[in-house]
Here is the input.
Amino acid sequence: MSRIAARLLLTALFVSVSLGYLGADVTIKQSVDGKMLAFSGKGTSTTYIKGNRMRTETTMGDRTHSMIFDVDAQKIYVFDSRKKEADVWDMAAFRQQMEKSVDLAGASGSIKANGQSKTIAGQTASGYDMVMSMKSAMAGSQDLNMTVTLQGPVWIVKGAPGSADFSRFYKAAAEKGFIFGDPNAAKAQPGPAKAIAEMYKQFAAIGGIPYESRTEIKMSGEGPMAMVARMGNMTMTSVVESVDTAALADDLFAPPAGYKLNMKK
Here is the structure.
């Protein structure tokens, strides 16, 4: 369970920072914090968006974990600074696996303005209260059902630099059934992965960039899943430090030359 917890925590940190109008580029730098079980982590992350591609780099201690999301190619690449190899996931096939485990028709939730505002990184952000719920089954077994709930405040800057690119990327990714974390963790806990993907889809629909979010992820279940659900609860926090719209190089959205590519499914 500890390995799964570590992957889920890293995924939570990734999605908490993963926030295109083709041809324009966006770089978002953030501080991140996450907790799950006995694991906790603080670090920094940078998200790069170029058209229908996104790269996230999260640094915790001496480790940098990177992911590339290529919507048009239907691929996710996962690698870190300690290895010269990358896992390659075919999202068309992975999406079919996820659909066996997650009840998308049963998803519900809302993101409602709460009338508050504050300044973050020099921008005026509007406050929202977010609640998202989704049912899922671990390993696709209907005997292992649980409900995942995401809730907490989020501060969104409407019309922020790069917000059009942000919205277009996430709309395109959602239409292709992408998740925004490590697929290994999503296979172990499909509910949180799809709930978070739906959350960012709704953020994009608002027409801005989340500059700060504090999210609790709670899982509930019965029978054998009751204990697992209690162990799986986590929190994640992210705060934007800067947003840049300078042009990005194409090779940033591919694994480094010479890396071994491991095909996953």
